[in-house]
Protein backbone atom coordinates (compact mmCIF):
# COMPACT_ATOMS: atom_id res chain seq x y z
CA UNK A 1 0.00 0.00 0.00
CA UNK A 2 1.46 3.33 -1.14
CA UNK A 3 -1.05 5.72 0.34
CA UNK A 4 -1.37 7.29 3.78
CA UNK A 5 -4.69 9.04 3.24
CA UNK A 6 -7.56 9.24 0.78
CA UNK A 7 -6.71 12.83 -0.16
CA UNK A 8 -3.16 11.77 -0.99
CA UNK A 9 -4.59 9.03 -3.21
CA UNK A 10 -6.89 11.42 -5.08
CA UNK A 11 -4.12 14.02 -5.48
CA UNK A 12 -1.93 11.42 -7.30
CA UNK A 13 1.22 13.29 -6.38
CA UNK A 14 0.08 16.39 -8.29
CA UNK A 15 -0.88 14.43 -11.44
CA UNK A 16 -4.57 14.14 -10.51
CA UNK A 17 -5.87 15.80 -13.71
CA UNK A 18 -3.77 13.58 -15.97
CA UNK A 19 -4.18 10.26 -14.14
CA UNK A 20 -7.89 10.61 -13.33
CA UNK A 21 -8.54 12.20 -16.72
CA UNK A 22 -7.04 9.15 -18.46
CA UNK A 23 -8.82 6.60 -16.29
CA UNK A 24 -12.08 8.55 -16.52
CA UNK A 25 -11.94 8.79 -20.32
CA UNK A 26 -11.38 5.03 -20.61
CA UNK A 27 -14.16 4.25 -18.12
CA UNK A 28 -16.53 6.59 -19.97
CA UNK A 29 -15.78 5.08 -23.38
CA UNK A 30 -15.98 1.51 -22.09
CA UNK A 31 -19.37 2.16 -20.47
CA UNK A 32 -20.78 4.16 -23.36
CA UNK A 33 -20.00 1.49 -25.96
CA UNK A 34 -21.93 -1.37 -24.26
CA UNK A 35 -24.80 1.04 -23.56
CA UNK A 36 -25.02 2.00 -27.26
CA UNK A 37 -24.72 -1.65 -28.28
CA UNK A 38 -27.56 -2.66 -25.95
CA UNK A 39 -29.76 0.08 -27.43
CA UNK A 40 -28.93 -0.96 -30.98
CA UNK A 41 -29.66 -4.63 -30.30
CA UNK A 42 -32.97 -3.83 -28.59
CA UNK A 43 -33.98 -1.59 -31.48
CA UNK A 44 -33.26 -4.28 -34.07
CA UNK A 45 -35.12 -6.95 -32.10
CA UNK A 46 -38.07 -4.56 -31.71
CA UNK A 47 -38.22 -3.88 -35.46
CA UNK A 48 -37.97 -7.58 -36.31
CA UNK A 49 -40.80 -8.43 -33.87
CA UNK A 50 -43.00 -5.70 -35.35
CA UNK A 51 -42.36 -7.00 -38.87
CA UNK A 52 -43.26 -10.49 -37.73
CA UNK A 53 -46.50 -9.27 -36.14
CA UNK A 54 -47.36 -7.38 -39.32
CA UNK A 55 -46.79 -10.53 -41.40
CA UNK A 56 -48.96 -12.63 -39.10
CA UNK A 57 -51.69 -10.00 -39.33
CA UNK A 58 -51.45 -10.07 -43.12
CA UNK A 59 -51.92 -13.83 -43.15
CA UNK A 60 -55.08 -13.53 -41.01
CA UNK A 61 -56.64 -10.85 -43.23
CA UNK B 1 -13.38 -33.37 -43.59
CA UNK B 2 -11.57 -33.44 -40.27
CA UNK B 3 -13.39 -32.84 -37.02
CA UNK B 4 -11.85 -29.36 -36.78
CA UNK B 5 -12.96 -28.13 -40.20
CA UNK B 6 -16.38 -29.64 -39.55
CA UNK B 7 -16.75 -27.59 -36.36
CA UNK B 8 -15.32 -24.54 -38.12
CA UNK B 9 -17.81 -24.72 -40.98
CA UNK B 10 -20.65 -25.43 -38.59
CA UNK B 11 -20.07 -22.17 -36.68
CA UNK B 12 -19.20 -20.19 -39.83
CA UNK B 13 -22.92 -20.14 -40.50
CA UNK B 14 -24.58 -17.06 -38.95
CA UNK B 15 -27.55 -19.12 -37.74
CA UNK B 16 -25.37 -21.37 -35.56
CA UNK B 17 -22.92 -18.64 -34.58
CA UNK B 18 -25.62 -16.24 -33.36
CA UNK B 19 -26.75 -18.28 -30.31
CA UNK B 20 -23.14 -19.32 -29.53
CA UNK B 21 -22.00 -15.67 -29.49
CA UNK B 22 -24.99 -14.83 -27.30
CA UNK B 23 -23.93 -17.46 -24.76
CA UNK B 24 -20.25 -16.50 -24.76
CA UNK B 25 -20.68 -12.73 -24.66
CA UNK B 26 -21.78 -12.29 -20.98
CA UNK B 27 -18.89 -14.50 -19.80
CA UNK B 28 -16.31 -12.32 -21.55
CA UNK B 29 -18.02 -9.19 -20.22
CA UNK B 30 -17.90 -10.57 -16.65
CA UNK B 31 -14.26 -11.57 -17.12
CA UNK B 32 -13.44 -8.04 -18.33
CA UNK B 33 -15.03 -6.48 -15.21
CA UNK B 34 -13.25 -8.85 -12.80
CA UNK B 35 -9.87 -8.37 -14.47
CA UNK B 36 -10.32 -4.58 -14.54
CA UNK B 37 -11.12 -4.54 -10.81
CA UNK B 38 -8.03 -6.65 -10.06
CA UNK B 39 -5.88 -4.60 -12.46
CA UNK B 40 -6.98 -1.26 -10.99
CA UNK B 41 -6.39 -2.58 -7.45
CA UNK B 42 -2.85 -3.66 -8.32
CA UNK B 43 -2.17 -0.58 -10.47
CA UNK B 44 -3.52 2.12 -8.18
CA UNK B 45 -3.12 0.64 -4.70
CA UNK B 46 -0.35 -1.96 -4.72
CA UNK B 47 2.13 -0.77 -7.38
CA UNK B 48 4.90 1.49 -6.07
CA UNK B 49 5.52 5.10 -7.05
CA UNK B 50 7.81 5.44 -10.07
CA UNK B 51 11.28 6.77 -9.35
CA UNK B 52 11.24 9.20 -12.31
CA UNK B 53 7.61 10.02 -13.00
CA UNK B 54 6.09 9.88 -9.51
CA UNK B 55 2.39 8.96 -9.58
CA UNK B 56 1.99 10.29 -13.14
CA UNK B 57 3.20 6.99 -14.59
CA UNK B 58 -0.06 5.29 -13.46
CA UNK B 59 -1.58 6.36 -16.80
CA UNK B 60 0.35 3.35 -18.13
CA UNK B 61 -2.31 0.99 -16.76
CA UNK B 62 -4.80 2.20 -19.37
CA UNK B 63 -2.53 3.73 -22.02
CA UNK B 64 -0.52 0.60 -22.87
CA UNK B 65 -3.52 -1.81 -22.87
CA UNK B 66 -5.54 0.60 -25.05
CA UNK B 67 -2.64 0.96 -27.49
CA UNK B 68 -2.02 -2.79 -27.63
CA UNK B 69 -5.70 -3.48 -28.26
CA UNK B 70 -5.90 -0.82 -30.98
CA UNK B 71 -3.12 -2.61 -32.88
CA UNK B 72 -4.26 -6.15 -32.05
CA UNK B 73 -7.89 -5.53 -33.05
CA UNK B 74 -6.69 -4.14 -36.39
CA UNK B 75 -4.72 -7.35 -37.02
CA UNK B 76 -7.76 -9.48 -36.14
CA UNK B 77 -9.88 -7.29 -38.42
CA UNK B 78 -7.39 -7.80 -41.27
CA UNK B 79 -7.38 -11.55 -40.54
CA UNK B 80 -11.18 -11.82 -40.84
CA UNK B 81 -11.05 -9.61 -43.94
CA UNK B 82 -8.57 -12.02 -45.54
CA UNK B 83 -10.75 -15.02 -44.62
CA UNK B 84 -13.81 -13.22 -45.99
CA UNK B 85 -12.07 -12.39 -49.26
CA UNK B 86 -10.59 -15.85 -49.81
CA UNK B 87 -13.50 -18.06 -48.70
CA UNK B 88 -16.33 -15.61 -49.38
CA UNK B 89 -17.87 -16.30 -45.95
CA UNK B 90 -20.46 -13.79 -44.82
CA UNK B 91 -19.69 -14.15 -41.13
CA UNK B 92 -15.98 -13.29 -41.53
CA UNK B 93 -16.83 -9.94 -43.12
CA UNK B 94 -19.38 -9.30 -40.38
CA UNK B 95 -16.70 -10.00 -37.75
CA UNK B 96 -14.36 -7.47 -39.38
CA UNK B 97 -17.17 -4.92 -39.41
CA UNK B 98 -18.01 -5.64 -35.76
CA UNK B 99 -14.41 -5.11 -34.61
CA UNK B 100 -13.79 -1.72 -36.23
CA UNK B 101 -15.68 0.61 -33.83
CA UNK B 102 -14.09 -0.99 -30.74
CA UNK B 103 -10.65 -0.73 -32.34
CA UNK B 104 -11.28 2.90 -33.26
CA UNK B 105 -12.28 3.65 -29.67
CA UNK B 106 -9.06 2.10 -28.34
CA UNK B 107 -6.96 4.02 -30.88
CA UNK B 108 -8.68 7.22 -29.76
CA UNK B 109 -8.20 6.38 -26.07
CA UNK B 110 -4.55 5.55 -26.74
CA UNK B 111 -4.03 9.01 -28.28
CA UNK B 112 -6.06 10.78 -25.58
CA UNK B 113 -4.34 9.08 -22.62
CA UNK B 114 -1.04 9.62 -24.42
CA UNK B 115 -1.75 13.35 -24.66
CA UNK B 116 -2.65 13.40 -20.95
CA UNK B 117 0.65 11.67 -20.24
CA UNK B 118 2.71 13.75 -22.66
CA UNK B 119 1.63 17.09 -21.22
CA UNK B 120 3.13 16.65 -17.71
CA UNK B 121 6.16 14.57 -18.84
CA UNK B 122 7.21 16.18 -22.15
CA UNK B 123 5.46 19.53 -21.75
CA UNK B 124 3.33 19.01 -24.87
CA UNK B 125 -0.07 17.42 -25.51
CA UNK B 126 1.02 16.41 -28.99
CA UNK B 127 4.22 16.15 -31.01
CA UNK B 128 4.57 14.95 -34.62
CA UNK B 129 6.61 12.01 -33.50
CA UNK B 130 6.77 8.69 -35.43
CA UNK B 131 4.93 6.70 -32.76
CA UNK B 132 2.16 9.25 -32.26
CA UNK B 133 1.71 9.95 -35.96
CA UNK B 134 1.50 6.28 -36.93
CA UNK B 135 -1.08 5.68 -34.17
CA UNK B 136 -3.10 8.63 -35.51
CA UNK B 137 -2.98 7.01 -38.96
CA UNK B 138 -4.32 3.81 -37.35
CA UNK B 139 -7.31 5.78 -36.02
CA UNK B 140 -7.91 7.20 -39.51
CA UNK B 141 -7.69 3.69 -41.01
CA UNK B 142 -10.42 2.51 -38.63
CA UNK B 143 -12.59 5.54 -39.42
CA UNK B 144 -11.93 5.10 -43.15
CA UNK B 145 -12.93 1.43 -42.95
CA UNK B 146 -16.17 2.32 -41.18
CA UNK B 147 -16.98 5.19 -43.56
CA UNK B 148 -16.28 3.03 -46.62
CA UNK B 149 -18.53 0.23 -45.36
CA UNK B 150 -21.28 2.72 -44.58
CA UNK B 151 -21.00 4.44 -47.96
CA UNK B 152 -21.61 1.33 -50.11
CA UNK B 153 -25.20 0.13 -50.21
CA UNK B 154 -24.64 -3.43 -51.41
CA UNK B 155 -23.33 -5.24 -48.30
CA UNK B 156 -21.28 -7.82 -50.23
CA UNK B 157 -19.50 -5.08 -52.17
CA UNK B 158 -19.03 -3.07 -48.97
CA UNK B 159 -17.44 -6.17 -47.40
CA UNK B 160 -14.98 -6.56 -50.26
CA UNK B 161 -13.98 -2.88 -50.36
CA UNK B 162 -13.59 -2.78 -46.57
CA UNK B 163 -11.54 -5.99 -46.59
CA UNK B 164 -9.08 -4.59 -49.13
CA UNK B 165 -8.68 -1.37 -47.12
CA UNK B 166 -8.14 -3.39 -43.92
CA UNK B 167 -5.50 -5.57 -45.61
CA UNK B 168 -3.62 -2.67 -47.14
CA UNK B 169 -3.69 -0.75 -43.86
CA UNK B 170 -2.28 -3.62 -41.81
CA UNK B 171 1.21 -2.59 -42.96
CA UNK B 172 0.85 0.34 -40.53
CA UNK B 173 0.74 -1.94 -37.46
CA UNK B 174 4.42 -3.03 -37.52
CA UNK B 175 5.31 0.59 -38.32
CA UNK B 176 3.63 1.69 -35.07
CA UNK B 177 5.21 -1.14 -33.12
CA UNK B 178 8.77 -0.62 -34.33
CA UNK B 179 8.55 3.18 -34.72
CA UNK B 180 10.37 3.71 -31.41
CA UNK B 181 13.28 1.64 -32.74
CA UNK B 182 13.41 2.84 -36.34
CA UNK B 183 13.18 6.56 -35.65
CA UNK B 184 14.56 8.83 -33.04
CA UNK B 185 11.42 9.59 -31.07
CA UNK B 186 10.30 11.28 -27.89
CA UNK B 187 8.15 8.27 -27.04
CA UNK B 188 9.85 5.80 -24.72
CA UNK B 189 10.78 2.34 -25.99
CA UNK B 190 8.88 -0.84 -25.24
CA UNK B 191 8.60 -1.63 -21.51
CA UNK B 192 7.77 -5.24 -22.30
CA UNK B 193 9.26 -7.25 -25.14
CA UNK B 194 9.69 -10.90 -25.98
CA UNK B 195 13.47 -11.13 -25.94
CA UNK B 196 14.37 -9.26 -22.77
CA UNK B 197 13.04 -9.19 -19.24
CA UNK B 198 10.65 -6.29 -18.54
CA UNK B 199 12.22 -3.05 -17.37
CA UNK B 200 9.68 -2.42 -14.65
CA UNK B 201 8.69 -3.51 -11.13
CA UNK B 202 6.80 -6.81 -10.94
CA UNK B 203 3.64 -5.27 -9.49
CA UNK B 204 3.59 -2.58 -12.21
CA UNK B 205 3.91 -5.28 -14.86
CA UNK B 206 1.22 -7.40 -13.20
CA UNK B 207 -1.20 -4.44 -13.10
CA UNK B 208 -0.54 -3.67 -16.75
CA UNK B 209 -1.03 -7.28 -17.85
CA UNK B 210 -4.27 -7.61 -15.85
CA UNK B 211 -5.60 -4.44 -17.52
CA UNK B 212 -4.49 -5.69 -20.95
CA UNK B 213 -6.34 -8.99 -20.38
CA UNK B 214 -9.39 -7.05 -19.21
CA UNK B 215 -9.40 -4.87 -22.36
CA UNK B 216 -8.96 -8.03 -24.41
CA UNK B 217 -12.00 -9.73 -22.80
CA UNK B 218 -13.94 -6.46 -23.18
CA UNK B 219 -13.12 -6.33 -26.90
CA UNK B 220 -14.30 -9.91 -27.43
CA UNK B 221 -17.53 -9.20 -25.54
CA UNK B 222 -18.24 -6.00 -27.51
CA UNK B 223 -17.44 -7.48 -30.91
CA UNK B 224 -19.60 -10.55 -30.23
CA UNK B 225 -22.42 -8.27 -29.18
CA UNK B 226 -22.05 -6.07 -32.24
CA UNK B 227 -21.73 -9.00 -34.64
CA UNK B 228 -25.04 -10.36 -33.32
CA UNK B 229 -26.73 -7.06 -34.18
CA UNK B 230 -25.14 -7.12 -37.63
CA UNK B 231 -26.25 -10.74 -38.18
CA UNK B 232 -29.85 -9.86 -37.30
CA UNK B 233 -29.81 -6.82 -39.59
CA UNK B 234 -28.30 -8.62 -42.54
CA UNK B 235 -30.16 -11.90 -42.21
CA UNK B 236 -33.51 -10.36 -41.29
CA UNK B 237 -35.22 -11.97 -44.29
CA UNK B 238 -34.19 -15.52 -43.35
CA UNK B 239 -36.42 -17.99 -41.60
CA UNK B 240 -34.11 -18.63 -38.67
CA UNK B 241 -33.99 -14.93 -37.70
CA UNK B 242 -37.77 -14.76 -37.85
CA UNK B 243 -37.94 -17.83 -35.60
CA UNK B 244 -35.30 -16.41 -33.27
CA UNK B 245 -37.27 -13.23 -32.54
CA UNK B 246 -40.55 -15.06 -32.01
Describe the protein in words.
- The complex is a heterodimer of chains A (61) and B (246).
- By secondary structure, chain A is mainly alpha-helical.
- Chain A contains two helices and no strands.
- Chain A has one domain (6-60).
- Chain A has helices at residues 6-11, 16-60.
- The longest helix of chain A is centred in the middle third of the chain and has 45 residues, at 16-60.
- Chain B has one domain (24-46, 57-231).
- Chain B is built from nine helices and no strands.
- Chain B has helices at 3-11, 14-46, 60-87, 90-122, 130-151, 155-169, 172-182, 202-234, 239-244.
- The model of chain B has no long low-confidence stretch (mean pLDDT 91).
- The chains are: A mainly alpha (61), B mainly alpha (246).
- The interface between A and B is large, with 30 and 42 residues.
Give keywords.
heterodimer; A: 61 residues; mainly alpha; rod-shaped; B: 246 residues; 9 helices
Mean pLDDT of chain B: 91
Helix content of chain A: over 70%
If you average the pLDDT of chain A, what whole number results? Answer: 92
Element-by-element helix/strand order of chain A: HH
Amino acid sequence: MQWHSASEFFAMGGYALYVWGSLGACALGMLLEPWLLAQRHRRILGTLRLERLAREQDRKD
Amino acid sequence: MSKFTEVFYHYASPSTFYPLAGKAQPWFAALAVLLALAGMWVGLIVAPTDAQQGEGYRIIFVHVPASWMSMFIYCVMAFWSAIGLSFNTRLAAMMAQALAPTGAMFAFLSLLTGALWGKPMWGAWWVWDARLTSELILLFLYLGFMALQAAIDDPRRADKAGAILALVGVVNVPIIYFSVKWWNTLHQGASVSINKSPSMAHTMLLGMLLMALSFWAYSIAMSLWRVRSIVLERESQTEWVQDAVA
